[in-house]
Predict the structure.
Amino acid sequence: MSSLAIGEAFTGSSSVGSGQQLRFSDPATLAAMDDAQVMLRVRDGDDAAFNYLVDRYRRAMVSFMYRMVHNSAIAEELSQEVFLRVYRSRASYTADAKFTTWLYRIATNLSVNHARDNKNERPEFKASLDETDEETGLSIDVADARPNIEQEILRRERLRAIRKHVEALPERQRMAVMMHKYQDLDYRQIAEVLHLSESATKSLLFRAYETLRESLKDFV
């Protein structure tokens, strides 16, 4: 579902209290705001602001969810659900934390619930020879821009190994790695999402990366 489609699903559903009339923001105005300010506009009934946030974070959400569930169709559905929950929760939004922290808390809770409800679901496996460090951020280099058959096979084996060992990480470690390595969340944000202290988050990531380095030492 596109951001336009999500927005259309809620057209006319916004309400602004006390007879106020809210002008919908134009993209240039929204781009000058930080995300928390934009979300406050959503809270006040500005659906253009909501569409702006969907456009800004949709791709990152789909990517995050895909790395959690390893199925592109489910990742798309879950990312849509994240934004629907953002919209439904707009009235209670406060700018106490960064918008991305709040967004990834919703996404993390949703992905954890999905994983627990679908333990026996078979993941979709897609390995592209153009992928690089798809699951851990560890360097997987092929010297030749046009790899030969042996290099392609080796690269595919590396990708399978990375996927396998990231998936084998304990749940919190796996989520922390995804948020840290691929979504550019800092330690404080990850700590808030996972309800941990910042020092505990650093320790969690250290253990995760040490486990991956040991498990993948024959591949990287």
Q: What stands out?
A: Residues 130-220 form a domain with the Arc Repressor Mutant, subunit A fold (CATH 1.10.10.10). The chain has a mean pLDDT of 77.
